[in-house]
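Students often ask why inverse folding is considered easier than folding. One informal answer: many sequences map to the same fold, so there is more than one right answer. In these notes we will look at a single instance of the problem. The structure comes first.
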């Protein structure tokens, strides 16, 4: 798999969660994106990063009037009713995946008799995208005080990873990556991931954690950090792989193997 910086991201999916206290990763990821898609209030966070969205998708119940008015004229908007069967994050993710596959969201296929985009048709088209090999996505500001939304957003990202996409998540301060086995990575977070930290926060040390996302992670090996694993199972509810330490400031030498299952990796500054 390719590292986060040299990789061209097909889409950033900006959610309405919280931004971390320092931006080590978000702006860097946004600068590598082909499309930037905001789920409703996610547009506000994008503007704070200095990256206006190409698309805003949602019911517009969490985006301020000021932000809405400041959107560029070329920004495409898909507005849904507030009472719907999907979250704004789900619909923005569906749109991101379809746009990455060069699907025209304004085609007649997606419209119901009122000439608006049909949310059910949109989501069903997303569900048909069962292979995302070669595609890459970043979820920005995926976590916040709404823990139900945080878990739902991680589940969405996991779904894309299981379908073969390269998937990263960040609030700027923490960078996460979801990988589904079988997989072998020479570097989960390559040295380029830490360019901003290296240039602007040169004395900040970053830790490394691993969290299984299902109870079927087998053959997990981790090398290149203080504590290593050799072909062990990881089960939900264990904290065996949290807060690992690099041999230098950055865990850019962490190499992993996974036989089966899906795993979420994290890197974050030690002082958090």
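Output (designed amino acids):
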């Amino acid at each position: 798999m390719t590292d986060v910086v040299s990789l061209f991201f097909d889409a950033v999916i900006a959610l309405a969660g919280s931004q971390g206290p320092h931006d080590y990763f978000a702006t860097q990821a946004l600068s590598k994106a082909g499309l930037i898609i905001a789920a409703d209030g996610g547009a506000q966070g994008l503007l704070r990063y200095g990256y206006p969205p190409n698309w805003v998708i949602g019911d517009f119940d969490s985006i301020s009037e000021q932000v809405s008015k400041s959107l560029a004229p070329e920004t495409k908007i898909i507005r849904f009713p507030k009472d719907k069967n999907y979250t704004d994050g789900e619909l923005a993710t569906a749109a991101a995946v379809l746009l990455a596959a060069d699907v025209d969201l304004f085609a007649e296929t997606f419209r119901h008799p009122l000439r608006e985009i049909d949310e059910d048709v949109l989501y069903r088209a997303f569900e048909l995208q069962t292979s995302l090999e070669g595609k890459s996505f970043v979820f920005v500001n995926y976590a916040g005080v709404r823990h139900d939304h945080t878990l739902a957003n991680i589940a969405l990202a996991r779904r894309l990873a299981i379908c073969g996409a390269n998937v990263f998540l960040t609030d700027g301060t923490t960078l996460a990556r979801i990988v589904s086995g079988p997989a072998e990575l020479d570097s989960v977070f390559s040295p380029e991931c830490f360019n901003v930290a290296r240039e602007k926060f040169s004395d900040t040390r970053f830790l490394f954690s691993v969290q299984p996302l299902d109870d079927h992670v087998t053959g997990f090996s981790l090398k290149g950090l203080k504590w290593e694993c050799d072909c062990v199972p990881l089960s939900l509810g264990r904290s065996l792989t949290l807060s690992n330490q690099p041999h230098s400031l950055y865990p850019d030498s962490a190499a992993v193997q996974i036989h089966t299952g899906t795993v979420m990796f994290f890197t974050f500054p030690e002082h958090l």
